[in-house]
Specification:
The chain has 120 residues and is mostly beta strands. It has no helices and nine strands.
Length: 120
């Protein structure tokens, strides 16, 4: 698992990942970059939509080397609305062996859409 030099990548593939299976008990995987994949994911957007008619909250974390690093903790998403937590102006990288995880405070209440570039 070595860092990828983004100047020398030969492929950049646009990808979108979606899930509605965030659980209320613990963080669950949204997007995983496997160890030794020789890929780097540049996450350009993370959009969450609350499908409920009541407010709900969400946690989002980057897990690396078995440690969770939160970039959203107990963020309230109003009823029947959406929130953009990551945009092009604050994109993040998901390195090999890292996982983007989330936890909804009401199971199945959120749709999560991640737009990213797969660099290899």
């Amino acid at each position: 698992m070595s860092p990828i030099n983004i100047v020398s990548v030969s492929n950049i593939t646009a990808r979108t990942s979606a899930t509605s299976s965030l659980q209320s008990g613990s963080l669950s995987a949204i997007l995983t970059n496997p160890a030794s994949s020789n890929h780097l994911y540049k996450i350009n957007s993370v959009t969450l939509s609350n499908k409920l008619t009541i407010n709900t909250s969400v946690d989002l974390a980057l897990t690396s080397a078995s440690n969770d690093y939160y970039f959203a903790k107990s963020v309230v998403i109003p009823a029947s609305s959406s929130l953009i937590l990551v945009g092009k102006e604050n994109s993040i990288y998901l390195e090999e062996g890292s996982v983007l995880k989330g936890k909804a405070f009401h199971t199945g209440s959120l749709d999560v859409i991640v737009g990213y570039e797969d660099l290899s």
